[in-house]
Amino acid sequence: MRKFGFSASRGTCFMGGVLLAIAALFPNRSETQTATAPSKLNSPQSLSDRMNTWSVGLAGGQLEGAPIRFAAEIARVVDDGPNMLVLPIVTRGPVENLNALLKLRGVDLAIVNSDALEEYKAQVPDIAKRVVYVLNLFPSELHIFVRPEVKSLQDLAGKKVNFNTFGTAAAYTGPLVLSRLGIDVEKTFIPHPVALEQMRKGELAAVVFITSKPIDAFVRGRWDPGFKFLPVPYDSKFEDYYLPSALTAADYPNLIKQDESVSTIAVPAVLLSFNWPANSNRYQRVSRFVDYLFSRIDRLQAPGFDPKWKSINLAASVPGMTRSPSAQMWLDRQSRSQRTPQ
Questions:
Q1: What is the DSSP letter of 78?
Q2: Which of 38, 148, 215, 272 has the greatest count of CB atoms below 10 A from its CB?
Q3: DSSP-derived secondary structure for 86-103
Q4: How far apart, in Å, are the Cα atoms of 63 and each of 54, 99, 116, 163, 167?
Q5: The model's pTM
Q6: Are 137 and 193 in contact (CB under 8 A)?
Q7: Are 260 and 249 in contact (CB under 8 A)?
Q8: Helix boundaries (H) for the chain
Q9: How many whole angstroms separate alpha carbon 340 and alpha carbon 252?
Protein backbone atom coordinates (compact mmCIF):
# COMPACT_ATOMS: atom_id res chain seq x y z
CA MET A 1 0.00 0.00 0.00
CA ARG A 2 1.37 3.38 -0.90
CA LYS A 3 1.70 5.59 2.15
CA PHE A 4 0.39 9.12 2.12
CA GLY A 5 2.75 11.64 3.62
CA PHE A 6 2.34 15.32 4.13
CA SER A 7 5.55 16.31 2.32
CA ALA A 8 5.50 19.10 -0.20
CA SER A 9 6.26 16.70 -3.02
CA ARG A 10 3.36 14.26 -2.55
CA GLY A 11 1.26 15.17 0.44
CA THR A 12 0.23 18.67 -0.59
CA CYS A 13 -2.18 19.07 -3.47
CA PHE A 14 -1.41 21.52 -6.23
CA MET A 15 -4.61 23.47 -6.54
CA GLY A 16 -3.81 25.60 -9.58
CA GLY A 17 -4.37 29.21 -10.32
CA VAL A 18 -7.90 29.22 -8.99
CA LEU A 19 -6.78 28.40 -5.47
CA LEU A 20 -3.92 30.86 -5.58
CA ALA A 21 -6.38 33.57 -6.43
CA ILE A 22 -8.60 32.83 -3.45
CA ALA A 23 -6.11 31.60 -0.86
CA ALA A 24 -5.38 35.05 0.47
CA LEU A 25 -9.04 35.51 1.32
CA PHE A 26 -9.04 32.83 4.00
CA PRO A 27 -7.27 32.39 7.34
CA ASN A 28 -4.75 29.65 7.99
CA ARG A 29 -6.06 26.62 9.88
CA SER A 30 -3.25 27.05 12.39
CA GLU A 31 -4.66 30.40 13.41
CA THR A 32 -7.21 30.54 16.21
CA GLN A 33 -10.76 30.78 14.89
CA THR A 34 -12.73 33.57 16.50
CA ALA A 35 -16.44 34.18 16.51
CA THR A 36 -17.92 36.63 14.06
CA ALA A 37 -20.57 38.65 15.83
CA PRO A 38 -24.07 38.16 14.38
CA SER A 39 -24.56 41.91 14.33
CA LYS A 40 -21.61 42.24 11.97
CA LEU A 41 -22.89 39.50 9.68
CA ASN A 42 -26.30 41.15 9.51
CA SER A 43 -25.07 44.69 9.06
CA PRO A 44 -24.91 46.39 5.66
CA GLN A 45 -21.81 45.29 3.77
CA SER A 46 -20.21 45.96 0.45
CA LEU A 47 -20.73 43.39 -2.29
CA SER A 48 -17.12 42.27 -1.93
CA ASP A 49 -17.49 41.80 1.83
CA ARG A 50 -20.67 39.78 1.41
CA MET A 51 -19.12 37.53 -1.23
CA ASN A 52 -16.10 36.87 0.96
CA THR A 53 -18.27 36.27 4.03
CA TRP A 54 -20.42 33.65 2.27
CA SER A 55 -17.98 31.80 0.02
CA VAL A 56 -16.62 28.27 0.52
CA GLY A 57 -13.90 26.34 -1.31
CA LEU A 58 -14.75 22.81 -2.45
CA ALA A 59 -11.84 20.53 -3.44
CA GLY A 60 -13.08 18.40 -6.33
CA GLY A 61 -10.52 16.55 -8.41
CA GLN A 62 -8.99 16.40 -11.86
CA LEU A 63 -10.81 17.87 -14.83
CA GLU A 64 -11.43 14.49 -16.44
CA GLY A 65 -12.85 12.92 -13.27
CA ALA A 66 -16.40 12.66 -11.97
CA PRO A 67 -15.84 14.42 -8.58
CA ILE A 68 -15.04 17.81 -10.13
CA ARG A 69 -18.19 17.51 -12.23
CA PHE A 70 -20.23 16.81 -9.11
CA ALA A 71 -18.56 19.77 -7.38
CA ALA A 72 -19.48 22.03 -10.30
CA GLU A 73 -23.08 20.85 -10.20
CA ILE A 74 -23.26 21.50 -6.47
CA ALA A 75 -21.90 25.01 -7.02
CA ARG A 76 -24.47 25.64 -9.74
CA VAL A 77 -27.43 24.69 -7.54
CA VAL A 78 -26.23 26.27 -4.29
CA ASP A 79 -25.25 29.57 -5.89
CA ASP A 80 -27.10 32.59 -4.50
CA GLY A 81 -25.02 35.51 -5.67
CA PRO A 82 -23.23 37.24 -2.80
CA ASN A 83 -25.28 35.24 -0.27
CA MET A 84 -23.68 31.88 -1.15
CA LEU A 85 -20.76 31.20 -3.48
CA VAL A 86 -19.11 27.78 -3.91
CA LEU A 87 -15.70 27.69 -5.58
CA PRO A 88 -15.00 24.22 -7.07
CA ILE A 89 -11.24 23.62 -7.05
CA VAL A 90 -9.35 21.43 -9.52
CA THR A 91 -6.91 19.21 -7.61
CA ARG A 92 -4.70 16.18 -8.15
CA GLY A 93 -7.61 13.90 -7.32
CA PRO A 94 -10.17 12.86 -4.70
CA VAL A 95 -7.74 10.73 -2.71
CA GLU A 96 -5.44 13.62 -1.84
CA ASN A 97 -8.32 16.04 -1.34
CA LEU A 98 -8.22 15.21 2.34
CA ASN A 99 -4.76 16.78 2.45
CA ALA A 100 -6.26 19.92 0.95
CA LEU A 101 -9.03 19.97 3.54
CA LEU A 102 -6.56 19.57 6.39
CA LYS A 103 -3.76 21.80 5.19
CA LEU A 104 -4.74 24.37 2.58
CA ARG A 105 -6.26 27.76 3.24
CA GLY A 106 -9.52 28.39 1.41
CA VAL A 107 -10.70 24.77 1.44
CA ASP A 108 -13.79 24.15 3.59
CA LEU A 109 -15.14 21.05 1.84
CA ALA A 110 -13.73 18.14 -0.15
CA ILE A 111 -14.93 15.11 -2.08
CA VAL A 112 -12.94 12.11 -0.83
CA ASN A 113 -13.00 8.38 -1.58
CA SER A 114 -13.94 6.43 1.53
CA ASP A 115 -11.09 3.91 1.37
CA ALA A 116 -8.55 6.72 1.84
CA LEU A 117 -9.90 7.44 5.32
CA GLU A 118 -8.21 4.46 6.96
CA GLU A 119 -4.80 5.62 5.71
CA TYR A 120 -5.30 9.03 7.27
CA LYS A 121 -6.55 7.56 10.53
CA ALA A 122 -3.11 5.98 10.94
CA GLN A 123 -1.24 9.21 10.18
CA VAL A 124 -3.67 11.68 11.76
CA PRO A 125 -5.05 9.96 14.89
CA ASP A 126 -7.58 12.72 15.58
CA ILE A 127 -8.88 12.75 11.99
CA ALA A 128 -12.41 11.97 13.19
CA LYS A 129 -12.38 15.20 15.20
CA ARG A 130 -10.90 17.35 12.46
CA VAL A 131 -13.27 16.46 9.61
CA VAL A 132 -16.95 15.54 9.48
CA TYR A 133 -19.11 14.25 6.66
CA VAL A 134 -21.86 16.27 5.04
CA LEU A 135 -23.17 13.77 2.50
CA ASN A 136 -22.59 10.22 1.34
CA LEU A 137 -22.23 10.69 -2.42
CA PHE A 138 -21.94 8.26 -5.30
CA PRO A 139 -19.89 5.13 -5.81
CA SER A 140 -16.96 5.22 -8.25
CA GLU A 141 -16.76 1.96 -10.14
CA LEU A 142 -13.55 0.00 -10.68
CA HIS A 143 -12.82 -0.53 -14.41
CA ILE A 144 -10.01 -2.92 -15.31
CA PHE A 145 -9.67 -2.62 -19.09
CA VAL A 146 -7.35 -5.13 -20.76
CA ARG A 147 -5.89 -6.18 -24.09
CA PRO A 148 -7.29 -9.20 -25.99
CA GLU A 149 -4.58 -11.62 -24.84
CA VAL A 150 -5.42 -11.02 -21.17
CA LYS A 151 -8.13 -13.47 -20.16
CA SER A 152 -8.26 -13.14 -16.36
CA LEU A 153 -7.02 -11.08 -13.43
CA GLN A 154 -4.30 -13.67 -12.81
CA ASP A 155 -2.95 -13.05 -16.34
CA LEU A 156 -1.97 -9.54 -15.25
CA ALA A 157 0.71 -10.84 -12.87
CA GLY A 158 4.08 -9.39 -13.85
CA LYS A 159 2.61 -7.26 -16.66
CA LYS A 160 2.50 -3.48 -17.04
CA VAL A 161 -0.69 -1.94 -15.69
CA ASN A 162 -1.40 1.80 -15.57
CA PHE A 163 -3.12 3.47 -12.60
CA ASN A 164 -3.35 7.08 -13.82
CA THR A 165 -1.30 9.81 -12.14
CA PHE A 166 -0.38 9.94 -8.45
CA GLY A 167 -3.11 11.39 -6.26
CA THR A 168 -5.99 10.03 -8.32
CA ALA A 169 -8.45 7.42 -7.12
CA ALA A 170 -7.01 4.85 -9.52
CA ALA A 171 -3.46 5.42 -8.26
CA TYR A 172 -4.50 4.67 -4.68
CA THR A 173 -7.32 2.16 -4.90
CA GLY A 174 -6.14 0.23 -7.98
CA PRO A 175 -2.90 -1.13 -6.48
CA LEU A 176 -4.69 -1.73 -3.18
CA VAL A 177 -7.36 -3.87 -4.86
CA LEU A 178 -4.83 -5.93 -6.82
CA SER A 179 -2.77 -6.38 -3.65
CA ARG A 180 -5.82 -7.74 -1.83
CA LEU A 181 -6.31 -10.15 -4.72
CA GLY A 182 -2.68 -11.28 -4.47
CA ILE A 183 -1.75 -10.05 -7.95
CA ASP A 184 1.64 -8.35 -8.34
CA VAL A 185 1.92 -6.17 -11.46
CA GLU A 186 4.43 -3.71 -12.89
CA LYS A 187 2.79 -0.41 -12.00
CA THR A 188 2.89 2.73 -14.14
CA PHE A 189 1.41 6.10 -13.23
CA ILE A 190 0.93 8.12 -16.40
CA PRO A 191 -2.14 10.05 -17.62
CA HIS A 192 -4.81 7.68 -18.85
CA PRO A 193 -5.13 9.18 -22.37
CA VAL A 194 -1.43 8.45 -22.92
CA ALA A 195 -1.75 5.00 -21.36
CA LEU A 196 -4.68 4.05 -23.58
CA GLU A 197 -2.65 4.78 -26.69
CA GLN A 198 0.25 2.73 -25.33
CA MET A 199 -2.19 -0.05 -24.58
CA ARG A 200 -3.39 -0.07 -28.20
CA LYS A 201 0.25 -0.60 -29.28
CA GLY A 202 0.74 -3.46 -26.85
CA GLU A 203 3.06 -1.54 -24.50
CA LEU A 204 0.63 -1.93 -21.58
CA ALA A 205 -1.52 -4.92 -20.65
CA ALA A 206 -4.24 -2.98 -18.83
CA VAL A 207 -5.45 0.34 -17.50
CA VAL A 208 -7.34 0.78 -14.24
CA PHE A 209 -9.95 3.51 -13.95
CA ILE A 210 -11.88 4.30 -10.78
CA THR A 211 -14.57 6.85 -11.45
CA SER A 212 -18.30 7.13 -11.87
CA LYS A 213 -19.52 5.25 -14.92
CA PRO A 214 -19.87 5.66 -17.85
CA ILE A 215 -16.40 6.83 -18.96
CA ASP A 216 -16.23 8.71 -22.27
CA ALA A 217 -13.05 6.96 -23.39
CA PHE A 218 -14.94 3.66 -23.48
CA VAL A 219 -18.27 5.02 -24.69
CA ARG A 220 -16.92 7.03 -27.62
CA GLY A 221 -13.62 5.28 -28.27
CA ARG A 222 -13.34 2.55 -30.89
CA TRP A 223 -11.59 -0.60 -29.76
CA ASP A 224 -10.52 -3.68 -31.69
CA PRO A 225 -12.29 -6.97 -30.90
CA GLY A 226 -11.00 -8.59 -27.73
CA PHE A 227 -10.42 -5.42 -25.70
CA LYS A 228 -12.60 -5.81 -22.64
CA PHE A 229 -13.30 -5.23 -18.95
CA LEU A 230 -12.26 -7.93 -16.51
CA PRO A 231 -14.74 -9.02 -13.81
CA VAL A 232 -13.81 -8.39 -10.17
CA PRO A 233 -15.99 -10.51 -7.85
CA TYR A 234 -17.15 -8.90 -4.62
CA ASP A 235 -16.25 -10.96 -1.54
CA SER A 236 -15.03 -10.61 2.04
CA LYS A 237 -11.79 -8.95 0.89
CA PHE A 238 -13.75 -5.82 0.02
CA GLU A 239 -16.43 -5.63 2.70
CA ASP A 240 -14.75 -2.84 4.68
CA TYR A 241 -14.89 0.09 2.26
CA TYR A 242 -16.36 -1.14 -1.02
CA LEU A 243 -19.70 -2.00 -2.59
CA PRO A 244 -20.67 -4.61 -5.20
CA SER A 245 -21.41 -3.18 -8.63
CA ALA A 246 -21.51 -4.09 -12.32
CA LEU A 247 -20.73 -2.68 -15.76
CA THR A 248 -23.46 -3.31 -18.33
CA ALA A 249 -24.29 -2.83 -21.99
CA ALA A 250 -26.28 0.24 -21.00
CA ASP A 251 -23.00 1.74 -19.77
CA TYR A 252 -20.74 0.53 -22.59
CA PRO A 253 -22.77 -0.75 -25.56
CA ASN A 254 -19.66 -1.11 -27.78
CA LEU A 255 -17.78 -3.28 -25.28
CA ILE A 256 -20.43 -5.31 -23.44
CA LYS A 257 -23.08 -7.41 -25.16
CA GLN A 258 -26.75 -6.88 -24.49
CA ASP A 259 -28.08 -8.83 -21.49
CA GLU A 260 -24.52 -9.32 -20.21
CA SER A 261 -22.71 -7.60 -17.38
CA VAL A 262 -19.24 -7.46 -15.84
CA SER A 263 -19.12 -7.71 -12.06
CA THR A 264 -16.92 -5.20 -10.27
CA ILE A 265 -16.62 -3.22 -7.05
CA ALA A 266 -17.24 0.45 -6.32
CA VAL A 267 -15.68 2.97 -3.94
CA PRO A 268 -18.14 5.33 -2.22
CA ALA A 269 -17.30 9.02 -2.42
CA VAL A 270 -18.03 11.28 0.55
CA LEU A 271 -18.49 15.05 0.83
CA LEU A 272 -16.46 16.12 3.87
CA SER A 273 -16.22 19.40 5.76
CA PHE A 274 -13.51 20.74 8.00
CA ASN A 275 -14.81 20.67 11.57
CA TRP A 276 -14.76 24.40 12.25
CA PRO A 277 -15.55 25.72 15.76
CA ALA A 278 -19.26 26.41 16.11
CA ASN A 279 -18.80 30.11 16.85
CA SER A 280 -16.58 30.84 13.84
CA ASN A 281 -17.50 32.49 10.57
CA ARG A 282 -16.15 29.48 8.67
CA TYR A 283 -18.61 27.24 10.51
CA GLN A 284 -21.42 29.63 9.61
CA ARG A 285 -20.41 29.50 5.96
CA VAL A 286 -20.51 25.71 5.90
CA SER A 287 -23.79 25.71 7.79
CA ARG A 288 -25.38 27.99 5.20
CA PHE A 289 -23.93 25.81 2.44
CA VAL A 290 -25.55 22.73 4.00
CA ASP A 291 -28.91 24.49 4.28
CA TYR A 292 -28.80 25.51 0.63
CA LEU A 293 -27.60 22.11 -0.63
CA PHE A 294 -30.04 19.98 1.35
CA SER A 295 -32.98 22.28 0.67
CA ARG A 296 -32.27 22.26 -3.05
CA ILE A 297 -31.35 18.61 -3.52
CA ASP A 298 -34.43 18.17 -5.71
CA ARG A 299 -32.89 20.57 -8.23
CA LEU A 300 -29.87 18.29 -8.57
CA GLN A 301 -32.25 15.40 -9.23
CA ALA A 302 -33.86 17.19 -12.17
CA PRO A 303 -32.88 16.73 -15.85
CA GLY A 304 -29.62 18.40 -16.79
CA PHE A 305 -27.62 17.00 -13.85
CA ASP A 306 -25.86 13.70 -13.32
CA PRO A 307 -28.53 10.96 -12.95
CA LYS A 308 -26.77 9.61 -9.85
CA TRP A 309 -28.13 12.51 -7.81
CA LYS A 310 -31.47 10.70 -7.91
CA SER A 311 -30.06 7.96 -5.68
CA ILE A 312 -28.82 10.34 -2.98
CA ASN A 313 -30.10 9.76 0.55
CA LEU A 314 -29.44 12.82 2.71
CA ALA A 315 -29.68 10.75 5.88
CA ALA A 316 -27.23 8.03 4.75
CA SER A 317 -24.39 7.54 7.22
CA VAL A 318 -20.66 6.97 6.70
CA PRO A 319 -19.20 4.18 8.89
CA GLY A 320 -16.56 5.37 11.32
CA MET A 321 -17.23 9.07 10.82
CA THR A 322 -19.27 11.81 12.51
CA ARG A 323 -21.94 13.68 10.62
CA SER A 324 -21.52 17.43 10.25
CA PRO A 325 -23.41 19.22 13.07
CA SER A 326 -25.01 21.46 10.44
CA ALA A 327 -26.21 18.46 8.46
CA GLN A 328 -27.54 16.76 11.59
CA MET A 329 -29.43 19.88 12.64
CA TRP A 330 -31.00 20.17 9.18
CA LEU A 331 -32.12 16.53 9.31
CA ASP A 332 -33.49 16.99 12.83
CA ARG A 333 -35.50 20.04 11.75
CA GLN A 334 -36.94 18.10 8.83
CA SER A 335 -37.86 15.21 11.11
CA ARG A 336 -39.63 17.53 13.57
CA SER A 337 -41.52 19.32 10.81
CA GLN A 338 -42.75 16.00 9.39
CA ARG A 339 -44.01 14.93 12.81
CA THR A 340 -45.82 18.23 13.42
CA PRO A 341 -49.52 18.04 12.45
CA GLN A 342 -50.40 20.35 9.58
A1: H
A2: 272
A3: EEEEE-S-SSTHHHHHHH
A4: 25, 18, 20, 16, 13
A5: 0.73
A6: no
A7: yes
A8: 16-23, 38-42, 47-53, 66-78, 97-103, 117-123, 127-130, 169-180, 192-200, 216-219, 281-295, 297-300, 325-339
A9: 47
